[in-house]
Amino acid sequence: MQYLEGRKYVVQTIFVVVALLFAARLFYIQVLDGSYKLAADRNSLQRIVQVPYRGLIFDRNGKLMVQNTPVYDLMVVPREIKQLDTVRLCELLQLPIEEFRLALTAAKTYSRVKASPLIQNLSTPELAAIQDNLIDFPGFSIRAHMARSYKTENLAHALGYVGAITPKLLESPKYAKYIAGDNLGITGLESFYEKTLMGRRGVQYRMVNVRGIEKGAFRDGEYDTLSIAGLDLHTSIDSELQQYGEMLMAQKRGSIVALDPKTGEILAFVSAPYFEPARLSGKGMGNRYMDLLNNPDRPLFNRPLMATYPPGSVFKLVNELVALQMGVVTPYTSFPCNQRLVKCTHRHEPPTNVGIAIKQSCNPYFYQVMRTAIMRGRSSNPKEDARLGLAEWRRQVMSFGLGQQLGVDLGSERKGSIPSPELYDKMYGRHGWNFRTIYSLSIGQGEIGITGLQMANIMATIANRGYYYTPHFVRGIGQGGPLPEYKERHYTNVDPQHFDAIIPGMQAVVEGRGGTGNLASLAQFGISVAGKTGTVQNAHGPDHATFAAFAPAEDPQIAIAVFIENAGFGGSSAAPMAALMMEKYLRGKVERTQWETWLEGDASKFIRKR
Amino acid sequence: MPSSPARYSRSLDWVTIGIYALMVGLGWLNVYAASYSPDAPAGFAGQSFQELMANNWFKQIVWIGTAVVLMVILVVVDYKAYDTFAYVFYAVVVLLLLVTLFIARPIAGSRSWLELGPVRLQPAEFAKFATALAVSRFMAGINLRHQNWRDQAVLAGMTLLPPLLIIASNETGQALVFGAFLLAYFREGMSPLILIILAAAGVILILALLIPKLWLIGGITLILGGVFLVNSRVMRHHLPLALSVWAVVVGMVFGVDFFFNQVLQPHQRKRIEVLINPSADPLGVGWNVTQSKIAIGSGGLMGKGFLEGTQTKFDFVPEQSTDFIFCTVGEEWGWMGSIVVIILFMALLMRLVYVAERQKSVFGRTYGYCVASIFFFHFAVNVGMTIGLAPVVGIPLPLFSYGGSSLWSFTILLFIMLAIDAYRKQDLVR
Question: Is the ipTM of this complex over 0.85?
Answer without folding.
Answer: yes
